[in-house]
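User: Hi! I'm working on a homework problem where we have to compare a predicted structure to a textbook description. Could you give me the structure for the chain below?
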Amino acid sequence: MTATLPTFPETGLGTELAVVLPAYNEAKNLPTLLDRIGRALGDSGRPYRIIVVDDGSTDDTAATADWAGNSLPVEVLRHDKNRGLGAALRTGLIEAIRHSDFVITMDADDSHDPAIISHMIERAEVGYDVVIASRFEYGGAEIGVAGHRKFMSHGASALLKRVAPLKGVQDYSSGFRVYRTDLLKRLVVHYGEDALVTESGFACMVELLLKTSLHGGRVSEVPLILRYDRKKSPSKMRILRTVTRYGTVVRSHRQERSRRLRIQPLKLRLAESSEAENGEIGQRMLSVVVAGIGLILAAPLMAIIALLVKSSSRGPVLYTQTRVGIDRRGNNNLHNHRRKVDQGGLPFKIYKFRTMIQTEGKTTEQVWASPDDPRVTRVGRILRKYRLDELPQLINVLRGDMNIVGPRPEQPDIFQDLRVKVSNYQVRQRVRPGITGWAQINAHYDQSLDDVRRKVSFDLEYISRRSLAEDLKILLRTVPVVVLQRGAW
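Assistant: Happy to help. Predicted structure tokens:
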């Protein structure tokens, strides 16, 4: 719904800059950051002001900012309680655009270098509406960032570039930006002050960026060296929540874009990608996060398993086998003309730790595995008992072959046989296969057609109600199933 634009006084001061600092419990970081901003902008000769939004801090954030106001043009806006980064950012932006030509947003934790503001303003003055200080631009870097956080941020950025590509953007989540005020005013006209930013957490940065793109914003990036080693307080970002909220933001962006183009959302989704169906974006992000964290945490254990497998029997450490994956033709994927033979889905190589003896020659017969298979080695029996042989499949998840949660992928020959004998078996291929799933935690190894039919009923039940919440529930229920050695993988 379009809102009436409030009255925004003209600056009358030439090019005025407003720096917006959303701050929650940043009393330790603010003094250094404010001093650095003052030196960087003071040398520029441009009129500027610093707007600190104290988001209900429980420390001396507001008092620290007030004290800095004795020597710097600092204004302090206060929230009576903590409302989240998005609300603090919105408060600062609404105030900033009333008297400014350019608005700079920065994190208040002293991890951003104000010295590059002048370079960012130069970019904005040649016609760019948004200039992002990017870790991923050539010359950018991250110092002091924990390995798992770096992995997650790079993974989330790659996924966002795929599901919501924006020209000139690599770093979707960076909070260090320059906005042209006239673009922000257009956003206020369209969304209203209260809905300029609706996300409360760190996903607000992605939300605002996508909104600027819908209104013709031209974006450029300059390199940023992110200095997490300067932070004197712990990070407040909840990684899992933030990444899952990205999915909600992207879905809203696509829906609004479809309305603006006068195209029904369903038609747009089918034309672009199956990823947006039934919350697939959020589920895919969850899978990437869990797989990335899982590989980091399990790396020492996987190294030990590799040594045990190698030393206990002849053959490779990893075992690969062709499995049938998602059937994108059922989702109107445009690339399926490359698949000449209908195999029921996209074939892929699944990775597992080898648990069986290496036999002379290779058999082409594809058969079901069983818990007491005589081909299983002593080490392999332990790995299978606790599902540790499945750990390499986290790589399949990151490659996009699988999700963490979904129906188990079957071998091609067995698949061809079962889709003839079992009703609705092909429907399982409408979603990515998974490491765990509703069928895996409720049934046992397939040893007969009746077992398959029972598991297919669980798979179809999952597909009918699948969601991010459902995946989280299945993940939680997988833990006791593995510990108590039940279920089927």
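For your comparison, note the following. The chain has a mean pLDDT of 83. The CA atoms of residues 323 and 411 lie 5 Å apart. Good luck with the assignment!
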